[in-house]
Amino acid sequence: MKAQLRTSADIGTAIRACREAMGLNQAELARLAGVGRQWLIQMEKGKPTAQIEPILKTFEALNLKLMALNEVEREQENGLSANPITAEINSIIETLADNGQRK
Fold first, then answer.
1. Taking the model in full, what pTM does it have?
2. Calpha distance 43→37 (Å, rounded)
3. Taking Cα atoms as reference points, which of 61, 60, 78 lies closest to residue 69?
4. Which residue of 22, 39, 59, 102 has the smallest Cβ count within 10 Å?
């Protein structure tokens, strides 16, 4: 999965999408990541004040990598939306935003 994560809501949506794709419930992911279930619930809702360490632990439990690309590197990737998986995740994020589920 490749997605541009610009907001805490985007991060929460990505975490939820990966968790569900792996067939995990929130309690299972929280245990695997070593975070509290309540924190995970808030993060999936886009908690804007989330600390980075639990996010990194959650990404690790989901086998996700957090990468930073500058504009030149992004252009070399030929635009993130050119990737079908990225387009799908971006579509999920946009759909949730359209449905008012993203804050």
1. 0.65
2. 10
3. 78
4. 22
In the DSSP assignment, the letter for residue 83 is S
Q: Report the Cα–Cα distance between both ends of the chain, in Å, rounded.
A: 23
d(CA 48, CA 12): 10
Is the pLDDT confidence value at 81 over 60?
Answer: no
> Would you state the structure tokens that stand for residue 7, as one six-digit string?
């907001």
103 touches 9 (CB < 8 A): yes
Cα pseudo-dihedral 75, 13, 47, 99, rounded to 10: 110
Q: Identify residue 41 by its one-letter amino acid code.
A: I
Tens-digit pLDDT profile for residues 4-56: 788 899 999 999 999 999 999 999 999 999 999 999 999 999 999 888 899 99
Tell me the three state secondary structure of residue 37: helix
